[in-house]
Amino acid sequence: MTLLEIKNLKKVYTARFSNQQTEALTxxxxxxxxxxxxxxxxxxxxxxxxxxxxxxxxxxxxxxxVFLEGSPLSKIKxxxxxxxxxxxxxxxxxxxxxxxxxTIKDNILLPLVLSKTPVKEMEERxxxxxxxxxxxxxxxxxxxxxxxxxxxxxxxxxxxxTQPKIILADEPTGALDSKASxxxxxxxxxxxxxxxxxxxxTHSAQAASFSNRILFIRDGAVYHEIYRxxxxxxxxxxxxxxxxxxxxxxxxxxE
Amino acid sequence: MNNRFFSSLxxxxxxxxxxxxxxxxxxxxxxIMMFYLMASxxxxxxxxxxxxxxxxxxxxxTVVIGIFSVIFILYTNSFLIKRRKKEIGLYxxxxxxxxxxxxxxxxxxxxxxxxxxxxxxxxxxIFGRLFFMLLNYMVRLPVDIIYSTSSLIVLATVGLFLAxxxxxxxxxxxxxxxxxPIKLLKGKQEGEKxxxxxxxxFILSLVFLAWGYGISVTIPDPLEAxxxxxxxxxxxxxxxxxxxxxxxxxxxxxxKKNKQIYYRPGAFISISGMLxxxxxxxxxxxxxxxxxxxxxxxxxxxxxxFIGAEETLENRxxxxxNMTLFGDVEDVxxxxxxxxxxxxxxxxxxxxxxxxxxxxxxYRYATFFGGVQxxxxxxxxxxxxxxxxxxxxxxxxxxxxxxxGKSYTLDDDAALYYHSTNAYTDSExxxxxxxxRVAEVANEFGEDxxxxxxxxxxVPDASHLLEIQEDFKEQYPETNYLTIDAEVGWNTSGTxxxxxxxxxxxxxxxxxxxxxxxxxDSRLLxxxxxxxxxxxxxxxxxxxxxxxxIGTVLIxxxxxxxxxxxxxxxxxxxxxxxxxxxxxxxSTRSQIVWMFVLPIVIATIHVIFAYPxxxxxxxxxGVTNETTWLLSFVGVVIAFAAIYWVIYRLTSKTYYSIVK
Lengths: 255, 660
Ligand SMILES: Nc1ncnc2c1ncn2[C@@H]1O[C@H](COP(=O)(O)OP(=O)(O)OP(=O)(O)O)[C@@H](O)[C@H]1O
Ligand SMILES: [Mg+2]
Fold this sequence. Notes:
Chain A: This is ABC transport system ATP-binding protein. Chain A: It comes from Planomicrobium stackebrandtii. Chain A: Keywords: ATP-binding, Nucleotide-binding, Transport. The complex is a heterodimer of chains A (255) and B (660). With 255 residues, chain A is α/β, with parallel strands linked by helices. Chain A is built from 8 helices and 10 strands. Chain B is of the alpha+beta class and 660 residues long. In chain B, 68% of the residues lie in helices and 11% in strands. At the A-B interface, helix 2 and helix 3 of A face helix 11 and helix 18 of B.
């Protein structure tokens, strides 16, 4: 089943004090099946964050459309957009975006509280997730009292707790060292294997190697894609590195 | 690296932290302005000349605002520096030595203090003049009250605030010298910790409040009220801060424990936010509460004095015409003839104008100072003894019956008495060498009796007055103040013009300028000046009310704006994970109970407990009508709540527009 479909997406930024325009996305087309784990890679400034923001409804496209389970996101009313974000999407950010005034537990429960979920149900959902992510010992601490890797696992828990249709992650390993990155990616992979659809933006070939499919974007369009298939991790890493090399050398040739 | 480098760096820091510094500077300027205005009133002609009890009250006001300034500036500064910890921590990591950082902080303090002190003084001068002009125009007193100030006051203001800014500098430096850079980098994230021993703080707060309230509730007389008022105010202020700090944390934690309450969107966001900066939150609320109490007391009391002007005039001058006859120390007995002669003269003069005396009252009395010990009145020859503060007034039955319209009879060894504190319950009382069987009567002697501890004794006739005096003179030959004095008051028929003409005639003969041992006062002639004076009190009351209201606006504004900037990032994150605007509004709405209801309710409780002591103070100004006071108190509470509601709404809109 196609979960997410992106058709002819285009985004043009207009600078605030001049008429200068930046075309961040020219035409983007791709779709994601339910249960997939897709990575998006590309050079800095190629439009990855822009794309993710539009899918997250944090930003509007200039033209084109994003369909979730066949229905266009642009048709969601302003009033419903927060509830939609809360219930349908889960977010993981590069800089964690945890709130210092909440304990770890409250940070995780935040989207549920905003949806007015009964206390009993919240607690029932919390425990399995934090146990699974190995952070149950820290739930009464505050974010500044735990390590970066633990923070990101808290963010994952916060994204998972609403049982979203899709998790959107923007460089989730960006602020972590390689061991913590490895650990986080294993967790994401596990979640995916349990059926969760994930769309992740990353710069790291190692992180991307945990997904089943990789989209490369350049100059605001999907340029190339590779599937993992049944390939073992090392072989897949190899293919990723090669693709990245090709991608950047083509870029240089163009200039 | 020279000073020039550091000073330009300091200037740049201030500019680049505009968001933080503009509210900080604005509020410092306003508080300096407030202090300067208040201190200038100490020098004000009206305050100095009109009533001897006014000056100490303004000294009190100035001290309170002074203390308040210290707390407020330290509070806003701690807010500011906390948000800059990361930036300043970076200096350390980039290789600036601690003494260099201190230098930068020094120049920052110099710039901000010079700017705010200068602007505060100029603003105070302009505002004071303008506002006095406006109030003079509105109240229309017979003589304008002039705003004045002196170089001494300017100097005191500059000195005080330089000292306060000096303390902020030391505080800021200590924040950076004793902390490691990593901690500083994290400084902004960490929430405030609950103060140690908050239970003890809570108990202490109750002790202070009970002590302050206790002084007010048990205050025996107005003179005591003036001296103890300051202590009571101070105790209640300290108690309020402690109560808010310990109490609010206590309640917030309890709310957080209750899952059904805590895990609802509005409460979730606001409770956790308040706990995150619990001390700051508490100090801010306590500030608002104290200012609110001051507004309510200042305005409601002066309003009472103003509304009650006619009544106080009548208390002070019970009759249209009043005459006090001062006795002769050398020839005490002379009064017994002068008293009757004078009443005849009055009668004749009135009749000569074709008018009649419609009502009158007259009595002779002897005054003794001393104290009641057991069932004896112990005489004090110097009348300055603190141990024996009782004022004893002895008057003959004849005059008492005439004055009250009653017809008591007394045996030769019997007397009637009234005691202002109602403490005397014996059935016998020894005065001089004579012991009387005594019976208590109600206060027929005027409200003035209750100003200080006093006793009135009615003896069978005027010869007893002389006998008692003789006895005391024998016991204390040094005594030189014993006389028999008298009061005569009367109303007449006739039109206002006729009455005025008559009053002027009496005034010429017996008035203050005429000299002699009889002093005449006309209510009619005093009225204008009386209203002028009471209008002056109202003027000051409104002025103070306005001053404190500005303070309230300031704090509320500062609290909302600085918290808004503090919370902005959090709300942005929460919006990303699905917080909608309605919930933001809901969370700002659930502040109402805290920001609006709590300070007003506690301020009202303060004012209710201040009632007894304020009532005693009002007695000094001749106000005896409690209904007027209660009504104006309720009116002012409602009016202030309404004004504060507007302030609250406007500032919480500002907060909302910052975070959304
Ligand atoms: N708010 C904006 N206004 C104008 N231009 C923008 C804005 N946001 C992004 N851009 C531009 O759009 C282009 C794509 O930016 P985007 O943030 O999507 O890149 P990215 O692929 O996420 O890069 P990185 O890997 O560095 O995060 C860039 O050229 C960027 O300068
Ligand atoms: Mg990006």
